[in-house]
TrEMBL record:
Pfam families: AAA, DUF7025. InterPro entries: ATPase_AAA_core, DUF7025, P-loop_NTPase. Residues 391-482 form the ATPase AAA-type core domain. Residues 151-244 form the DUF7025 domain. Residues 1-20, 372-394 are annotated as: Disordered. It comes from the Eukaryota. The lineage of its organism: Eukaryota, Fungi, Dikarya, Ascomycota, Pezizomycotina. This is P-loop containing protein. GO terms for molecular function: ATP binding; ATP hydrolysis activity. It comes from Fusarium heterosporum.
Amino acid sequence: MPPPENADKSSALGSKEATDSVQDLGLCSWNDEDLDYDEISVLSRGPKGLGSAFFVRDIIDRYTRKKSTTFELIADHLQDTMFELDVNRNMRLIEDDTSTIGYKDIYHLRDPLKMLRDKAEAEQQVARHDILDTFIRCLDDMFAPLDKRVAALLEENRIEYELLWTLFAPKTIAFTTCRITKAPCATRVSRYSNTINRMGQKNFRIEGHTFSGKGEQLCFLDIPVFESTKRIDSLSVYPLCYHPQVTAMRERLVENGRRVMAWTGIHHLQHSGWALPLYHNGNQRAQVLEGRIVVNRVTLDNEPSPSISISCGDEELSICSPTLTGFALTSLKRYVVAVDNLREVLWMDRPLAMPGRNGQLVLDLVNCHYRQKENPPPEGSSQPQEQNTTILLRGPPSVGKTMTAVSIAERCKRPLLILDAGSIDANLAVAESLHNEVFANAALWNAILVIKNADILLRTSSIVSQRNTVIGRLVQRLQTFDGVCIFVENQSEVQSRAEPAPPVNCTLDFLPLSSESRKEVSFFRLDQVTPSQSRSNKEALAEALAGTPLNSHQILKVVQTASYLGSDAGNITTQDLDRAIELQSGVLNSPHTPSASSV
């Protein structure tokens, strides 16, 4: 619309008179013909001879009485500058080849505009410099009261809800925590807005981007409305520069980003901390997850191929997602885990020695399988291209059969998937779905698959047809599985078989624990429960437990109880073992069980 009649058309853009006119604007009147508010505008001109540079337009809502201010850019130098600052997405094109940008958007652009003004002066671009200089002086005059108000709040590290927008300039790195794992994370701010949720609560919404191997991903973060003022570092989201330990936190975020980018593909890792089941109902919450986990990012469509090299700077690394999806080897479930809770696997320094010289033969057999897997024979060779390796471990319960399978995986540095055939009774549909996932993962990860209670698959019994169907399918999968499979059987002999069982490469019979084998079992359990204890201490404690009549499971319980009773964190003494054995003897009604110190 045309400017007011009393506007000084020869005045310089951004003069004190023009600024006062903006501040003294009254309410707009409603125009019944146009069904819109009448705009009150101030027309200013640039330096003499350069024509109009921009308009400042104010509109005041008839209900809320809130004033909205926009800047209509006319001069080509101003429009080109805005596009150079990459803020064209915040600009709206209007008629007559002009552009408009909002009051809040231009607030964050004053420093970049001053840099471009100085650059124009250095390059002797007189017209561009004069227009930018006049525009910046006008902005400084308009924002002076706001700057003074914000500066007083920031001096006390506080902010008002209505002024939150002053903190979040575009491309600001904002700090927050993951709502699932509570891990620290950051996002690059794109824009912000005021929203109202379903409960009618006002929120300040931040639209940001996080970084992954595929690129940037959109995220939304809300700050609920609050009264008076609030400490900036107590907000659910705030600029990273206001963090109490900004340098240390930035380094931590960058380090987590490096891990995310390094763990592209399949990685066998150690997890310790809170995790959330991936497929969970509404009542299930995050839980503590301790143990081995496999991060498998090969089969996900939104992740890059391991062969693709991705290079990014510290800023991109700092806004990497704080979580990954992993498959827990103990519970056989998928979890959302925090990157900060993941570490490289520390393999056991002394796995369990298997009975006799057969132990080394079994290890050689498994190692030979993986060597052939990694270096397949040439095409046309008479040697089979793919074949499985099956091992049968049988003997009385709690004599170290499963531990032997664990020791094989430790020596070979392979993931270990343990499937209990006895769980078929629980839920047939869930059991079959689990079997499908376990076999697929074992093949993809070159993992060692252990089937506990394998006698259920091999003996004849009167079971319902549906269970027979599940067992039959499981046996069929075992016959076509081309990895390493270890059967653990609690019977010394197999009388008859319900299904054609897969042939085995070797069978290892276990006898009741001897003093020497019990010592190896004890060392293994101590290494599991107290990995930080010195090797010499573990050997001494294992020697003390070797003379007790405890089986493998009882030794595990004794070691766990002793670790709870121990006064020295992470270490167990012989006295702790004695107390744990006494407690277990009372529970088991075996008062004559010898103590570790009496041996």
